Amino acid sequence: MGLGVVPRGKLTPGAPLAPLVWFKSGGTADWLFEPRDVADLQDFLAGLAPGIPVMALGLGSNLIVRDGGVPGVVIRLGKAFAKVEKVDEVTLNCGGGASGILVSSTARDNGIAGLEFLRSIPGTVGGFVRMNGGAYGREVKDVLIDCDVVIRSGEIATLPLSELGYSYRHSELVDGCIVVAARFRGHPGEPDAIQTEMDRISAAREASQPLRSKTGGSTFKNPDGGKAWELVDKAGCRGLTIGGAQVSEKHTNFLINTGEGTSAEIEELGEEVRRRVKQHSGVELEWEIKRIGRP
Q1: What is the DSSP letter of 100?
Q2: Which of 25, 218, 248, 263 is catalytic?
Q3: Quick check: 81 and 97 in contact, CB under 8 A?
Q4: Is 119 one of the catalytic residues?
């Protein structure tokens, strides 16, 4: 397979990915690598034959893994990458494997306001830095100072916000580079007030989103001046089903796996929704969920 070095972390051939993603569907990774630390990741990538594709997997919330599996190496950042530490009065240094919940809770404990919205992003720092994740009127670009990335050659670089090319739910980070850490800046606040805001966001999500289902989060990007869920609803897609895949009755910009749905059914349903929305309103919805691997 072109492995140059024996890594210190865990390397698993033919690893099932379905248990690791929210939709609970999809095939296997040729290889799954869980590095011991940043140096282990660097050495591993440096020794990997250049033609082998590499991708990072966070909490698997915003992802359809196709049924044919994923070629090359999927890298999952575990506990070693999940630390969050205070740098100064308003800044946190966060590992790429840390969850949005851990980041916002640590901010609260240190009296740092402005990061509450990260509580509602169902992923890891690496994932939401890569896609400029956002919710409730704020996005990562509003709070990010810089991030550390390990590029495909194994080298590490620190990229300031200005070099990430952020736009709505998008960055210009190249495929194959892994976000291993990021610095977020908030502003001074009272822990009680921060907790109240986190509770408000949490309750709003619980009320409006199918969080207890096998889902992938927001399916389509909101088009300019519009709301994806509204366009999907108006096109008559609420509850629409293909096999084990369904458009959520609770929030029409969420697809759910009702049981044994395949990734092919989930993706096909998404494409059918896009077709119906285009036909009904003329709007071409763009996928927000990443779709990876072999059909």
Answers
A1: H
A2: 218
A3: yes
A4: no
